[in-house]
Amino acid sequence: MRIEHTMLRAALRLALAGGLLVAAVANAALPIQRWQTRQGAQVQFVEEHALPMLDVQLDVAAGNAYDPAGKAGLADLVVQNLNDGTAQRDEQTLARALADVGAVLTAHTGQDRATVALRTLSAAEARTAATGVLTEILQSPAFPAAAFERERARSLATLQESLAQADGLAERAFYPRLFPGHGYGAVISPESLQAIQRDDLDRFYRARYRAPGAVLTLVGDLSRAEAERLAEQLAAALPAGPAAALLTAPTEAVQAGEIRIDHPGTQAHILLGQQGMAFGDPDYAALMVANYVLGGGGFSSRLTDEVREKRGLTYGVTSTFTPLAHGGMFSIQLETRRDQAQQALALVRKVLADFVAQGPTEAELRDAKRYLVGSFPLRLDSNHKQLDFISSMGFHHLPADWREAYPRQMAAVTLAQVRDAIRRRLHPDQLLTVVVGGEAR
Amino acid sequence: MLKTPLPFPSRCRWQAAWLLSILLVCASQTPPALAGTPASLVSPPSLTPPTGLSPPPAPGSTANKGSTAGKRSTASPGSTAGLGSTATPSPLDTERTLANGLRIVVHEDHRAPTAVVQVWYRVGSVDESDGHSGLAHVLEHMMFKGTPKVPVGRFSKIIARAGGKDNAFTGQDHTAYFEQIHRDQLALALTMEADRMVNLSFRDSDFASEIKVVMEERHLRTDDQPKALVEEQLMATALVSNPYRRPIIGWLDDLQHMTADDARSWYRTWYAPNNAILVVAGDVQPEQVFRLAQKTFGPLKPHPLPQRRPQQEPEQLGARRIAVRATAGQPYLAIAWPGPALRDVEHDWEPFALELLAGVLAGGDTGRFGEHLVHGDQVAVTADAGFEDIRRGPGIFSVEGTPAPGVTAEALERSLLAQIHDIQQHGVSEGELKRVKAQVISEQIYGHDSTFFQAMQIGTFDALGLPWREADRVPVRLQQITAEQVRQVAQRYLIPEHANLAVLEPLPVGKASAPTPAGETGAAVPAAVPAEDHHAH
Question: Which of A129, A147, A164, B87 is paired with A340 by a 20 to 30 Å CA distance?
Answer without folding.
Answer: A164
